[in-house]
Amino acid sequence: MAIMKTVHGRVHITDDLGNDVVAPSLVDREYDALCAVAEAAEAGHRAHCLLLIANCPICRALAALDIVQKAEFQAEHN
Questions:
Q1: Distance between CA atoms of 15 and 20, rounded to whole angstroms?
Q2: Which of 14, 15, 46, 66 lies most in the core, judged by the most C-beta atoms within 10 Å?
Q3: pLDDT tens digits, residue range 50-72?
Q4: Which residues, listed in sequence order, are joined to residue 25 by a DSSP beta bridge?
Q5: Direct distance between the N- and C-terminal alpha carbons of the chain, in angstroms, rounded to an integer
Q6: Is 10 helix (H, G, I), strand (E, B) or coil?
């Protein structure tokens, strides 16, 4: 029996044990690599930026991302 699940907005087709039935595409591997780069850049920026959030466009974008992630977390855990 195949099951479809969604992780990070991507649909995966899995068997009864949760294993992916369809091999990940190059797009999936590229997406995963880009996410890793983005997470490293985010961590580096948060650790080293000396500007106020209002003065730094990256910090403003990260603050907006934090709000979205917090809302998603609360929606999943209610």
A1: 7
A2: 14
A3: 998 889 999 999 999 999 989 98
A4: none
A5: 30
A6: strand
pTM: 0.56
The Cα 32–Cα 64 span in angstroms is 22
Q: How many CA atoms lie within 13 A of 31 on its CB side?
A: 9
Residue 20 has pLDDT above 70, yes or no: yes
Question: Tokens representing 4?
Answer: 């479809």
Give the helix ranges, DSSP H, for 15-56. 26-48
Distance, CA of 31 to CA of 63 (rounded, Å):
22
**Which pair of tokens denotes residue 63?**
């603050």
The amino acid occupying position 48 is: H
Distance CA 12, CA 44 (A): 31
pLDDT value for 13 = 73
